[in-house]
From TrEMBL:
Protein name: AAA family ATPase
GO molecular function: ATP binding; ATP hydrolysis activity
Listed transmembrane segments: none
Top-rank taxon, per record: Bacteria
Membrane topology value: Peripheral membrane protein
Keywords noted in UniProt: ATP-binding, Cell membrane, Ion transport, Iron, Iron transport, Membrane, Nucleotide-binding, Transport
Pfam families: AAA_21, AAA_23
Every ABC transporter domain range: 11-229
This protein's GO CC annotations: plasma membrane
């Protein structure tokens, strides 16, 4: 395995304002450091548990634009990122950063627009706006994962069909084999299944390493597939009772 670009994330809570909402996120508020042990690390957990907030903080501390893009992107459509990045110190590996990318599903439209503005003769635009959302996502990943670097992906499954998620897994594997490192926030039971990945759960009010089969994404999906009719019957009957 290649040395990692980022080996550890350290958080100095003295640099976070006392009235910040960050202090009220259970999984984050007492965390001082998070080591990375695998070239692929997943942040998993329910909405609102802080995984995307931490992912964003790591990305901005590393030098990425808050809305996404490569380290060369510098723009702001609407600042919504937290001050967490200012409290983060990244313990870097011995390898020099060469390339990388921060992908955010929620602001991809803005990045695609900027990509057109940044294009020139040497770097022609990929014309993301002329493709479907899913096609743009996958085309971006296939073109950007060609070099060793740190890739931070926030819910990349948002625009991808299950089949395209499998394609993304293959692209991640190819990138890892040439020395890339990934930190990914995801709900996808397909993406979370990457072999050898470390999965950090943000549920239960703390960050802890868990096995793939212990993720809620896997358990809910497995339960639904194996008991679809029963679960839907219970779900719909409970809603009908609530509406009466």
């Amino acid at each position: 395995m290649y040395p990692l670009f980022v080996k550890k994330v350290c958080i100095d809570w003295n640099r976070v304002p006392a009235n910040s909402y960050l202090n009220r996120i259970p999984a984050l508020k007492d965390v001082e450091e998070i080591p990375f042990r695998s070239p692929v690390t997943y942040f998993a957990g329910e909405n609102g548990t802080g995984k995307s907030t931490l992912l964003e903080g790591i990305a901005v501390a590393y030098g990425f634009n808050p809305e996404g893009g490569s380290r060369n992107y510098s723009f702001s459509t609407y600042d919504t990122h937290s001050e967490l990045w200012e409290a983060i110190t990244l313990v870097r590996g011995i390898r020099q950063k060469k390339w990388g990318y921060f992908l955010r599903a929620e602001s991809f439209y803005n990045v695609a627009t900027k990509e057109m503005e940044y294009a020139d003769i040497s770097h022609p635009s990929m014309n993301f706006h002329e493709r479907s959302h899913g096609e743009s996502f996958l085309a971006l990943m296939q073109s950007r994962l060609s070099s060793p670097g740190l890739y931070i992906l926030d819910e990349p499954e948002a625009a991808l069909s299950p089949q395209r998620q499998l394609t993304l897994l293959l692209e991640i594997k190819k990138a890892v084999e040439i020395g890339a490192q990934f930190v990914i926030a995801s709900h996808s039971p397909i993406l979370l299944g990457y072999p050898g990945a470390e999965i950090l759960s943000f549920d239960r009010g703390r960050i802890e390493k868990i096995q793939y089969e212990a993720t809620e994404s896997y358990q809910v999906t497995e339960m639904f597939i194996n008991n679809r009719e029963y679960l839907l019957k219970r779900l719909f009957s409970n809603e009908q009772e609530d509406g009466e």
